[in-house]
Amino acid sequence: MRRNWWKEGVIYQIYPRSFFDSDGDGIGDLKGIIQKIDHIHKLGIDIIWLSPIYKSPNDDNGYDISDYYDIMDEFGKMTDFDVLLNEIHKRGMRLLMDLVVNHTSDEHKWFQESRKSKDNPYRDYYIWRPPVNGGPPNNWPSFFGGNAWEFDEETGEYYLHLFTRKQPDLNWENEKVREDVYQLMRFWLDKGIDGFRMDVIPLISKRLEFEDTNLEEFSEIIHKVYANGPRVHEFLKEMNREVLSKYDMVSIGEGVGISPEQANLYVGESRGELDMIFHFGHMFIDHGVNGRMDPKPYSLKEFFEIFENWDKALGNEGWGSIYLGNHDFPRMVSRFGDAENYWKESAKLLATLLFSLKGTPSIYQGDEIGMTNVDFQKIEEYRDVELLNAYREIQDSGRNKQAFLKTAQKQARDHARTPLQWAPLPHGGFTTGNPWIRANSNWKNINVAQQEADPTSILNYYKEIIQLRKMYPTLVYGDFEPIRIENPNVYIFDRKLEGETIRVILNFSSETHICTESILSGKLLLCNYSTDETMGRLRAWEARVLEFSQQ
Ligand code: ISL
To answer: Are 34 and 82 in contact (CB under 8 A)?
Structure first.
C-alpha cells in the first residue's frame, strides 16, 4: 500500500454559512474563517474541506452554483479567498474545495441559455425530454421530494433534476460539458488549492433509457438507478487523465450509492480514477423505505459490520475516508452516542472510533466540541429545502404534521447547520447580528472558549487523539482486525503494523462491562475517563486505546 499525505492527514469540514460571521449580517463568511483559522490549526488538522463558496442563489445552501468562477456575495470576494488560501498554506495545511458538477443552479448562464430554445448551443448541456402521455418522462423521484422532472413552458419539455428543481442535472454525455468542468477544476487548482471533495460524483452518468423504476426503497433507487451509470468510470478516467493526474492533489468522491463491492472500481490504486470515497453504509443505516424521514431501528452489530465490510472490500487496493457526521446528517453524538446521559464520554468514544478505524478521518465542524442536535420546535425554525419540501408534502396530503416534526427533531439536516458555538455569548458568539438559522440554546454549556480552558474537554481529547494518530503509523496504515466478544455493546479491534498492535476498546453503552485481563493488558495510550481506577472493568461509554509490542 502506497503511503501518501492524504492518508496520514486529518480532514476538517467547514460549512462556511455557519462557521463564523465577521461582519454581523448573520451569515458566516470567508473573513470569519480567516479570523478563526487557528482554532483548526491548533486542533492538529492537515486538510480543510470547504463546503461550496461559489456564487449561488442558495436554494440548497451553495450546492446550487450559478458561477463557478466567483464567490458567493454573502461570503466575500475572490481577494478574501486568496488570503484564506494563503493563511491555510502558511500554517502547513491544505485546502479542498467542494466540486458540485452533477448539477448547476437554474440561474447558471448555461441553464439560462439552455432553456431558451431547442436549438440553443447550450441546449445539450442539460437533460431535456418531451412529455410522455402529457406528463413527465418517467416516475423517478427527486432526492428532495416530488418527481425528478420539471416542465419548462418556454420549449414545452421537461428537464431532469435529481435534487431541487433549481438544480438541473448536467448532461455529461456532452463533451463540451466535460471540457467546461475540467476547465473550472484547473482554474481552482492553478490558484493552488489541494484537491476536491466531489459532490454526488457517482451520479454523473445517467441511464439514458430513462425507464420507470419499480424499486421502493429510496437508497436502492440511488444505488441501482441514479448512481454507477454506464459511463461513470470512463468519465472519471478522463477527468483523471485531463486534470487530476497533473496536480499534487487529492480527490474524494462523495460515494453515495456505491456498494462495498463497487468501491475499488472508483478508488482502486490501479484504476486511475479517484483517491478515496466517503461511503454511506452507516449514514443510511436508520433510513427506512422512504429515506431519512422514515427512520428504522438498527443494531450495533449491523453498525460495526458496515465498517468491517467496507474495510474488507477496500483491502490493500483502495482507500476510504471515515466520518460520523457532516452537513447532511444529525449531530454524531446525538445520533450514535448518548447526548443526554453520557454526552462527554460518548462524544469522546465516537472520536476514538473516528480516529482509529482505517481511513482518513474527517471531522465535521462543531463535532470537536460535541455539538448536539438542536431543539427546534416549529417548522419556521428550520431552513433546509429538503425538510421544508417534505413538510409541504405532508401538509398537502393531510398527514400528521406533529409526527413529522417529531421525526425532524432526530433526523433533519439542519441539526448540523446551526452556528458553531464559539463562546458563552448570544448565538454562541457566532455573530453580533441575527443568525440565518437559530443557534442551539445549549451554547452556554457547549462552546469552544470553555473547552479550550478545560483539560478534560472533548476539544482537548480531539487534540490528544489527533497527536496520537500522528505518532503511530499503525493507526494509519495498520491492518484492521475486529475481535469478537459476547457482549454486543462492546466493540474491540486491533490495528497491526510491523510487529506493533494497537487495540481499541469501545463500550457503546451505559452498562459496565467486565473484561478478561488479557484483552486489557497492553500499555494504555489513551482513555476517555481521566481516572483509571478500574483494570478489568469498562465504565459507561468508556474508550481505551492500548499498545502491544512484538506480539
Ligand atoms: O442528505 C441526503 C438526502 O437525505 C443525502 O442523500 C444527500 O442528498 C446526498 O448525500 C447528496 O448530498 C450532496 O448533494 C446534495 C446536497 O444537498 C448535499 O448537501 C450534498 O452533500 C445536492 O448537491
So the answer is: no
